[in-house]
Recover the amino acids of this structure.
């Protein structure tokens, strides 16, 4: 077990602000994520959850604030350097490589753990063969873990939505992340599948020893598996605490009731 | 590739090697050009088919490769075979440097930028301050290489075999590149560049190197083409060359290695056939061919072949199951 106090915060979000023209998508959001935890990030549509993920992936520039991962500021890291640091993610609206097979998609996930370039690849030097074999092994083990054997050779675009979500998860895991960002992994799943997903996320956390930041609208799922929950509304953090604390928080109740009108 | 596929490819290469001993010298020369185009199309396919960067100006790299070879032979007396690495290097660098600013452009804007390159190069080749090397509008005439080691074959046959050897090498290198980490990264960028970046792919680097490698292939083809035709002149590298290359990769099959060969056969022989059908309006006939191909094989010849093979395999399977 990782001792959360000795380990300190794996991720520290410090006063992050993002604006798009007149819209303030994030407004001075701060919170910590401790290693080994599952942290839920909730909030009505448009609250800024995906924007925060995109800051963590460096797809968006933060206008203000800082993001520290293992004590290192992410703002100096280029977009393509994030995966190698140990931050993996899935996307709210699938972002798979549609013409590639399931297996190839997952193998791309391992890109950041391998190094061979154009020259050695075109000569297919032994180092390349070695690396390829390791990548293939990795991908196959994830195919087995996520029960994708039957579709491993299929083109991703031809698969049902739920299966594609699994492929994205496998692809993210292939990068061997320390922190896994899941953006609405349960959307489009039925009631039973949502329950299975909760079990799966916990199993992934335990098996791969990673930390999860989970954006989700299925409150039952978030509240049942999260160690802590952070609630956003209109780009501001309105509550943070245990699932029970956040659920009972007046501003959270207000935000969700307000969103329903 | 399975063992069977390797044997099949080896048999095809051997069969290709027999061609110059079965057909006339003129046909041999045409097949040499087919191999040259196959290399050029493979280069363009690496960029456009696999990496999703459209180029309407690859004729420029073909020209740069051709002139590199011609100038080195004409001015420096370099043997023809030794010019290939230089043509490759010059075009690799030129392609990479062009690919860097092109990173900012996508889709039709990249098409326009590459079009600008393709359309302006002939004028640059005519530029009088460069005439000392390029020969201006006159161009450069180069000698046909003789077969080495006193081989009992004629120069056309030799040039075909030499070109075939280079083509096989280039195809193997491309196949290696595409079937591994870099090939996956190139396709990933084409399919979903944001996710590709999030997976740790340095998309800027991969895209500009893909541009360089693509230009390198087309440049080597240009050098071989110059050696085969024994002549380079600015007007033989007009924008039409670039367009025809794009036609070739689409007809042959985008993102397909074998598609480069089908496409090369198309751009080499279909204009001739069209010319035989109608001397008055060969391009109209060419256009008809183009429409028929696009209509019947929307995934290119390579796609059609792939589907036909899959259907055959299914049939064979059904038959073996029913007996
Ligand atoms: N690329 C963008 N350009 C303009 N506005 C954006 C962009 N991304 C997000 N926004 C805006 O930022 C706000 C937060 O969006 P988002 O982070 O997607 O919300 P959530 O994921 O919580 O539903 C919304 O008002 C959205 O319209
Ligand atoms: Mg969202």
């Amino acid at each position: 077990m990782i001792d959360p106090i000795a380990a300190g915060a794996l991720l520290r979000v410090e006063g992050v602000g993002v604006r798009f023209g007149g819209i303030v998508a994030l407004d001075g959001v701060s919170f910590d994520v401790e290693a080994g935890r599952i942290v839920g990030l909730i909030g009505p549509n448009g609250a800024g959850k995906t924007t925060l993920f995109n800051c963590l992936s460096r797809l968006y520039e933060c206008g203000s604030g800082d993001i520290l991962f293992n004590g290192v500021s992410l703002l100096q890291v280029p977009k393509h350097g994030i995966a190698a640091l140990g931050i993996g993610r899935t996307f709210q609206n699938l972002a798979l490589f549609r013409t590639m097979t399931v297996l190839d998609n997952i193998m791309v996930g391992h890109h950041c753990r391998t190094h061979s370039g154009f020259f050695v690849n075109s000569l297919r030097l032994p180092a390349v063969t070695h690396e390829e074999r390791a990548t293939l092994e990795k991908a196959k083990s994830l195919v087995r873990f996520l029960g994708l054997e039957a579709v491993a050779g299929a083109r991703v675009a031809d698969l049902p939505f739920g299966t594609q979500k699994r492929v994205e998860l496998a692809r993210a895991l292939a990068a061997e992340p320390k922190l896994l960002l899941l953006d609405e992994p349960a959307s489009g799943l039925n009631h039973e599948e949502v329950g299975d997903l909760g079990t799966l996320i916990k199993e992934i956390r335990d098996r791969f020893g990673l930390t999860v930041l989970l954006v989700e609208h299925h409150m039952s799922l978030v509240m049942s598996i999260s160690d802590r929950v952070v609630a956003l509304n209109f780009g501001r953090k309105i509550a943070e605490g245990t699932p029970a604390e956040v659920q009972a928080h007046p501003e959270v109740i207000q935000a969700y009731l307000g969103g329903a009108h | 590739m399975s063992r069977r596929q390797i044997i099949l490819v080896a048999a095809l290469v051997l069969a290709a090697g027999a061609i110059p001993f079965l057909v006339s010298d003129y046909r041999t020369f045409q097949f040499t050009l087919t191999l040259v185009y196959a290399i050029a199309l493979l280069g363009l396919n690496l960029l456009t088919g696999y990496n999703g960067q459209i180029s309407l100006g690859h004729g420029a790299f073909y020209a740069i490769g051709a002139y590199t070879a011609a100038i080195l032979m004409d001015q420096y007396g370099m043997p023809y075979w030794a010019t290939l690495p230089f043509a490759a290097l010059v075009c690799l660098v030129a392609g990479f440097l062009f690919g860097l600013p092109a990173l900012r452009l996508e889709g039709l804007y990249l098409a326009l930028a590459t079009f600008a390159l393709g359309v302006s190069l002939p004028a640059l080749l005519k530029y009088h301050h460069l005439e000392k090397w390029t020969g201006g509008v006159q161009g450069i005439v180069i000698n046909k290489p003789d077969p080495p080691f006193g081989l009992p074959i004629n120069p056309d046959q030799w040039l075909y075999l030499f070109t075939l050897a280079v083509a096989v090498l280039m195809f193997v290198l491309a196949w290696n590149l595409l079937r591994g980490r870099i090939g996956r990264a190139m396709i990933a960028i084409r399919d979903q560049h944001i996710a590709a970046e999030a997976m740790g792919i340095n998309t800027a680097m991969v895209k500009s190197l893909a541009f360089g490698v693509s230009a390198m292939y087309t440049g080597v083809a240009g050098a071989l083409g110059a050696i085969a035709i024994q002549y380079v002149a600015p007007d033989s590298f007009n924008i039409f060359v670039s367009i025809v290359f794009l036609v070739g990769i689409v007809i042959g099959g985008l993102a397909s290695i074998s598609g480069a060969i089908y496409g090369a056969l198309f751009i080499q022989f279909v204009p001739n056939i069209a010319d035989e059908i109608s001397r008055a309006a060969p391009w109209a006939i060419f256009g008809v061919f183009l429409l028929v191909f696009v209509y019947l094989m929307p995934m290119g010849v390579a796609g059609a072949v792939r589907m036909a093979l899959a259907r055959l395999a299914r049939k064979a399977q059904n038959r073996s199951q029913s007996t």
Q: What stands out?
A: The first strand of chain A starts at residue 9 and ends at 20. The pocket of adenosine-5'-diphosphate (ligand 1) is lined by residues A 20, 23, 25, 43, 45-51 (CB under 6 Å).
